[in-house]
Amino acid sequence: MESTGLRVALRIWVTLVLLFLFVPVLLIILYAFNSSTIESWPIRGFTGHWFSVAWHDSQVREALWLSVRVGLFATGLALVLGSMVAYALHQFRFFGRDGISLLLVLPIALPGIITGIALNSFFSFTGIEFGTLTVVAGHATFCIVVVFNNLIARLRRMPGSLGEASMDLGARGWQTLRFVTIPLAATALVSGALLAFALSFDEVIVTVFTAGAQNTLPLWIFGAIRLGQQLPEVNVVVTIVIALTLIPVILAARIAGSGAVTRSR
Amino acid sequence: MTNSVSNERWLRVRSALWKRPWARATLLLSPPLAWFLLVYIASLLVLLITAFWQVNPFTSNIERIWSLGNLQTIFTTPAYLSIIGKTVGMAAAVTVTDAVVAVPFAYFMARIAAPRTRTALFVAILLPLWASYLAKVYSWLLIFTNNGFLDWTLGLVGIGKSNLIYTNAAVFIVFCYLWLPYMIIPVYSAFERVPASLIEASQDLGGRTWRTTRRVLLPLALPGIVAGSIFTFSLTLGDYITPLLVGGTSANFMGNVIYTNIGIANNVPFAAAMALVPIVIMGIYLLGARALGAFEAI
Questions:
Q1: Tally of CB atoms within 10 A around A202
Q2: Which residues of chain B have pLDDT under 50?
């Protein structure tokens, strides 16, 4: 129905928006190879030197290791708790069901700083010491909803007849869950876990309020940018973080389809 | 012998559970709900209570005495009122800009692009959506910096330096950049759900492109726009890192007030009181969004 003029105009618009979205990310990657310590454009020479500097920086290593550990713990916790709610809400009808799904979305619907400061005042109030555990607790709280969303969307699409057929063939509830439901939901669980890890690995707004003396990788980056120090190293670390968050997301999209990784469900 | 006894006991437990679905539901729901109540809801309650406490100005200890002092300070100090106004204004400006940028893009994706292009565009939105938040903010620091990419580009067309770094305009551009994918996705799915028959009907009735778009497509896409706006609005309201990194000294947003009061000033009750403001604003916003049918569009 659209006229040729409109089509051309839209095509130009889409190209401009794509440039707007991708140029900053591509620039970062180029800057990671910048041989100069001055961050001006155009880049005069290229080197892989800063990768080696970052790799041998013990602070960066410790931060990376902490981020990986926190991500794994938070993902594990979110996987268990998120699947339990998703399965229960799918299987049973009861009063307060909608309230529970609203409750789960709250940590990502409210501004991140609210979750951060709420957890911060809670931990100070109860005298829990800030450290790895408090960071994990914060991350798990907003990762649960990612696992939940992925799993419940899959459960809803799964035909009820499969479960009924399994029961007709004499399977008990547990057997149906083990041999029918879980295998059919496996890819949704894996993609949910990958997304939860990516979310946790990159999180900074809540983490600032829940971390103790140790740095996660985003906290190290935040600190370094604020101080304006070690910026060549920051370029490298940030490039690696982009890669490490995109790999799980690409895997999740391959496993469960790109509709599962929209982040806004 | 013992084995069969324990087997029998296990069977009895199972059949008891099978006969009582509420017991199974309770078993499944207790751990996750306990987590949410004990960690998250408890935290929000502590936040709410803390907002009404005070900090002793001499000892800087928290005094657990009920008082409206913090809220009074916020609502009677012109500086804080202007910070609230500035933050809400920024969130609104970012939301409107992202909607204006996203609608033609999403329209092209849903209605003009061939299926393969559509998939490619979808992936092209997802990649920057998930690429590290800090990396994206930092990349704009590199773009805005003195003699950086922007100055170089402007130099090519003969305009002088931008001097955008550490200004509100820089914060605005970065916010628009960061949250744009959050707007495009729901608008795209809203456009995609509009049945082709409705558009044909409008055309049969003589509606030209513009009229069909304005009278048929946009009203049907509105819930998608509102759904996206929840993210752009809420994410802007609660961000303190972007203003801190690219806004420099003009980083006066609600999030920054909360952040400095937790960190440097160490006045947790005041930070908590300030945090109530975005909660209330988002509450009102979500009620309005629900009335416009945004929740069905997410």
A1: 23
A2: 1
A249/B126 Cβ within 8 A: yes
Residue A81 identity (one-letter amino acid): L
Q: What is the pTM (predicted TM-score) of this model?
A: 0.89
Q: Can you tell me the distance from the alpha carbon of A227 to that of B244, in angstroms, rounded to the nearest whole number? A: 12
Q: Quote the pLDDT of residue A62.
A: 93
Residue A185's pLDDT band, with cuts at 50, 70 and 90, is: confident
| Domain limits, chain B | 2-50, 74-297
The predicted structure's pLDDT at residue A265: 45
Please tell me the number of Cα atoms within 13 Å of B54 on its side-chain side.
12
According to CATH, what is the number of the domain B74-297? 1.10.3720.10
Nearest Cα to Cα of residue B263 among A22, A211, A200, A178: A211
ipTM of the complex: 0.88
User: Which of A:130-159 have CB within 8 Å of B?
Assistant: 137, 140-141, 144
Q: Please, what sign has the CA dihedral across residues B85, B88, B92, B97? A: positive
Q: Using CA atoms, how far apart are residues B224 and B98, in angstroms rounded to an integer?
A: 13
Q: Does A102 touch chain B (CB under 8 A)?
A: no
Domains and CATH numbers, chain A: 50-261 (1.10.3720.10)
Mapping DSSP to helix (H, G, I), strand (E, B) and coil, where does residue B20 land?
A: coil
What does the buried/exposed string (b/e) look like for B23-33 if buried means 16 or more CB atoms within 10 Å of the residue's CB? ebbeebbeebb
In chain B, the DSSP E strands lie at 54-55, 62-63
Structure tokens given for A54: 């970052």
- Using alpha carbons, list the distances in angstroms from residue A258 to A195, A263, B189, B267: 12, 11, 13, 44
Q: What is the dihedral of CA B63, B237, B128, A74, to 10 degrees?
A: 30
- Taking an 8 Å cut-off on Cβ atoms, the answer to whether A42 and B142 are in contact is no
